[in-house]
Write a structure and sequence with these properties.
- By secondary structure, the chain is α+β, with helices and mostly antiparallel strands.
- It has helices at about 15-20, 50-60; strands spanning about 1-5, 10, 25-35, 40-45, 65-70.
- The strands form 2 sheets. Strands 4-3-5 form a 3-stranded antiparallel beta sheet. The protein has a two-stranded antiparallel ribbon with strand order 1-2.
- The chain is elongated and about 55 Å long.
- The protein starts with a strand and ends with a strand.
Length: about 70
């Protein structure tokens, strides 16, 4: 798509949704997990606490999430 400005034409590129997702900041979370009588911690980078919990559980499917904290 070309747009005219002061008689000069230049190409205006769409940034698309991909650029929006790339700009989302990730936070570092410490997820406290419990499995088979053992408590351990998993560091996770995620956009929010819910995603941090999902990532930690995907890595440790038999665990139970005790807490999620930002670091």
């Amino acid at each position: 798509f070309f747009q005219a400005e002061d008689g000069i034409r230049y190409l205006v590129r769409s940034r698309g949704l991909g650029d929006v997702y790339k700009r989302q900041t990730l936070m570092r979370c410490e997820v406290k997990l419990y499995v088979a009588g053992t408590v351990f911690y998993e560091d996770v980078y995620a956009k929010d606490y819910r995603e941090a919990k999902q990532v930690a559980l995907a890595r440790n499917p038999n665990a139970t999430v005790v807490s999620v904290n930002a670091r």
